[in-house]
Amino acid sequence: MARGRGNSARPEDVRAAVLAVADWLRDPDHTDVPPKALVAAAVRACAQALEQSAPGHSVEVRVPPHVAIQCIDGPRHTRGTPPNVVELPPRAWLLLATGLSSLEQLCAAGQGEASGSRATEITRWMPIVPL
Question: What is the CATH number of the domain that holds 99?
Answer without folding.
Answer: 3.30.1050.40
